[in-house]
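Running low. Got one?
___
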Amino acid sequence: MIVHAGLVARRDAGRWRGVLITGPSGAGKSDLALRCLGQGFRLVADDRVVLWRSGDRLFGRAPEALLDLIELRGLGVLAEPAIDLAEVALVVECAARETIERLPDPVHETLLGLPIPSLLLSPFDDSAPAKMGRGLKHLGLRR
């Protein structure tokens, strides 16, 4: 399955745990991914992510044509070293700040039949990468 999204990951307990960044074109997915790279995350895929299921785990990688590339509005397509794959532990949907509840109930996104913890984030907020890291730590635990 290929989705229009980005995927960044952080090394945790010897494995890469990833955050799938979703939203419509121009929502800020690549911008958020870029800022996460400065917060200890690594790029897995930008713009398109190949997803597959292995048992009760979901994994993602970049399509071959997009490997090691990130598109940044105003700069173009740039080289960015990427890791080969990561387990998808959290989904972040880019949303307008006014649509995000202050204290939301836990939500899951079902991908390839697997429930993956999900949250809404305003991607251009300064705190978005830190919130994403906290979400991965607290929500993106084994189901």
